[in-house]
Design brief:
By secondary structure, this protein is an alpha/beta fold. The protein contains 5 helices and 7 strands.
């Protein structure tokens, strides 16, 4: 069996749980108790998708806050990448921007930013600017309740990781 991890991160109420719940083949598991701390105030969640006969993709939902980066470290084995879920609230945008910067400063890990609740192309471009997101970084607007669209995001992230791995070995 092979187990792969995707970190689904975002601020409170950004849509992390909805994204995971939409595609998970198991009931979402709350991992917060596994890492009891007075600083842990939001849930850390786990969902799972079987992507082939013996390959499973674990979706680990964490807040973007620095104190949750321990989950990022623990999931780094077999890490496919990150999905940053951002809502239109100013706090969500600022916290997500900070988390993306932290990730980019540490290493070049594949990630996709999913804007929850944006419909218009001009709004997506405003979000890109607000996040200070480079043009080569993926920013997509997705209805997080739509399984087909969420699966497309997962597939895109896996493809990005495979392309990156291919470049390393070439």
């Amino acid at each position: 069996m092979e187990f792969l991890n995707i970190i689904v991160t975002g601020t409170g109420n950004s849509g992390k749980t909805t994204l995971i719940n939409t595609v998970s083949e198991i009931p979402i598991m709350d991992l917060s108790d596994s890492f009891k701390s007075k600083d842990v105030r939001q849930n850390v969640e786990l969902g799972r998708v079987q992507i082939s006969g013996d390959t499973f993709l674990y979706l680990i939902g964490t807040p973007t806050d620095d104190k949750y980066h321990i989950f990022w470290d623990r999931a780094s084995n077999d890490l496919v990448g990150f999905i940053f879920v951002v809502s239109t609230s100013k706090d969500s945008v600022e916290e997500t921007k900070k988390a993306i910067k932290t990730l980019e400063d540490v290493e070049n890990v594949p990630f996709i930013v999913v804007a929850n609740g944006l419909q218009e192309k001009k709004d997506i471009e405003k979000m890109r600017k607000a996040l200070d997101l480079k043009k080569d970084r993926d920013l997509v607007s997705v209805d997080l309740r739509n399984k087909e669209k969420v699966n497309k995001v997962l597939t895109s992230l896996i493809s990005m990781t495979l392309a990156k791995d291919t470049k390393k070995t070439a």
